[in-house]
Backbone:
């Protein structure tokens, strides 16, 4: 990952080369951004992520083969330290909801001004979320009455159950074939999504919401 003084490392994931060319040209003109790779499908994207360990993946939703939402979920499972910003022509709130549940930190429409995409990248790199105008409010309205558990990805739900069993990060890592660092990142994401501050509160929540059977 980048140091505070180095450029943020980005990868572009879109199955249209012309779209990638336009994005690369726009982003490489921004001081502090470095596009370190491009991918046209899920397999290429996963290989780029493993090779370059970028800070952010700008990812199309509607790719052929594995779509961007499914790929975002894979990124969140394998590379939880890489932030994902979805780029889409669809303003359907259900797509936005699915993307967030998959682990994406933002969702920007393809017809947004270039300046908005740059603001979105900056926000997501800064640990915040970003949604194109109107989408954020609609997402909040749609999720207002949902159980907070529904915000979690399948991997996060599994780790929550294992925390309820009393397993340490090292034990969870060994059980799931993950690094301890990856498990710790998942724990941080759990606290953020569930709006929980401390480890003791997280464990208490995990025990109270542990799945049975």
Residues:
């Amino acid at each position: 990952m980048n140091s505070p003084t180095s450029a943020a490392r980005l990868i572009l994931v879109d199955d249209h080369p012309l779209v990638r060319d336009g994005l690369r040209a726009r982003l490489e003109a921004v001081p502090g951004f470095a596009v370190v790779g491009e991918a046209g499908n899920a397999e290429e994207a996963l290989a780029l992520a493993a090779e370059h360990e970028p800070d952010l993946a700008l990812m199309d939703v509607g790719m052929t083969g594995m779509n961007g939402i499914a790929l975002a979920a894979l990124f969140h499972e394998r590379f939880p330290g890489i932030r994902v910003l979805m780029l889409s022509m669809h303003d359907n709130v259900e797509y936005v909801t699915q993307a967030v549940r998959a682990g994406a930190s933002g969702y920007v429409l393809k017809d947004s001004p270039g300046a908005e995409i740059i603001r979105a990248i900056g926000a997501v790199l800064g640990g915040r979320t970003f949604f194109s105008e109107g989408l954020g409010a609609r997402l909040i309205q749609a999720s207002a009455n949902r159980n907070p558990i529904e915000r979690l990805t399948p991997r996060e739900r599994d780790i929550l159950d294992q925390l309820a069993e009393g397993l340490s990060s090292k034990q969870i890592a060994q059980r799931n074939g993950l690094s301890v660092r990856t498990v710790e990142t998942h724990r941080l994401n759990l606290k953020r999504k569930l709006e929980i501050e401390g480890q003791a509160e997280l464990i208490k929540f995990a025990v109270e919401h542990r799945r049975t059977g």
Summary: The longest helix spans residues 180-194.
